[in-house]
Specification:
The chain has helices at residues 2-31, 43-47, 49-66, 71-80, 82-88, 128-140, 161-167, 239-246, 256-289, 308-314, 320-324, and strands at residues 90-91, 104-110, 144-153, 172-181, 185-193, 197-204, 212-220, 223-231, 294-300, 318-319, 326-327, 342-346, 350-357, 368-374. By secondary structure, it is an alpha+beta fold. It has two domains: 2-80; 95-374, Endonuclease/exonuclease/phosphatase (Deoxyribonuclease I, Chain A, 4-Layer Sandwich). Helix 1 runs antiparallel to helix 3 and helix 9 packs parallel to helix 10. The radius of gyration is 23 Å and the shape is globular.
Amino acid sequence: MKSTKKTSFWLKFILGINFLMILALLFAYVCCYISPAHLWLPAFAGLAYPYLLAANILFIVFWLFVRVKFTLFSILTLLLGYTHLMTFMQFHSPKNLDPKDAYFKVLSYNVRNFDLYNYKKNWEPNYEKRNKIYKFIQKESADIICFQEFVNDLSGKFKTLDTIVTFQKAKNVHAEYTVVSRGINQFGIATFTSFPIVHKGRINFPNATTNLCIYTDILVGKDTIRIYNAHFESIHFNYADYEFAENIASTQPKNEEDLKNKSMRILRLMKIGYEKRAIQADIVAKHVEKSPYSVIFCSDLNDTPVSYAYHSLTDILKDAFTESGSGMGNTYTEIFPSFRIDYIFLSNALTSANFVCIPSDNSDHYPIECLVKKKSK
């Protein structure tokens, strides 16, 4: 009798935890429609989505062996958020394309300034990773290349802009900068294309020192296409922040005050990032809506697919990864687990094929690319 009561108690307890995970997952779904600029706390539920998803899957497996009928609660919750699940995982097979198809290749890559200064003290220009990135670019032979965290050295010591055009076909350039260091290094973003450029423009973000969006109108055959290239607000973690975030379970802080200070710093930085990205996403989305041409939007969004910024853009554009990608597609390497924060978005008039995320240790982001063409009428 006592054993039966104990069993009943523990089943109710586990079911209660299950319901908490269900409610948390539902909250993550809702956070995509709440601007962090107005209410920032729900944004953290979106960041926790992979964990909440995994927890609900584990509960489904558990109930399959204990009480099958209880699996319905988490199963229905997962089905309700099916579209979110598909932004995290895809199963498209690579297409064998007819050479006659008018596809062109689009590459987007946050190159972290080509690892100019190794992100170390007492730095010297690092040519090793820059040259590896150059070889990669040459090998991929893309028609459109969008770089975020691009650097141009005016002294000519660390050549990028003038060199890249010499060894690959995307020779027409639109580069804009936000910061010039010591009057030498220009930091910003750059778009290279093999197609003629007919117009250039720049979208500045309020209260941003290093973030920017540019748009470049190109002529593809008889059609004009607008390329947006954007770098949204970063979190601005330093190495100590990353180390603390990754090892928080095992880190032994000096004292409780130390733990509190480090945790509050990370929370504050993430809050600021969410708020600024929401504003930036709204600004760009309004600009995209007014575009007279079909759009290719390449971006280091610095946000996951379960976020307000992502959904602001996918309300008007489609995600090339969900249309033609495969696997998880994670693009950021600096923290475990990795996240997908780099994207190629397209207008409905365009279609993509063979989206890939290419593992590389030359930056803290993986390059992404896909083939694009105008849809047949």
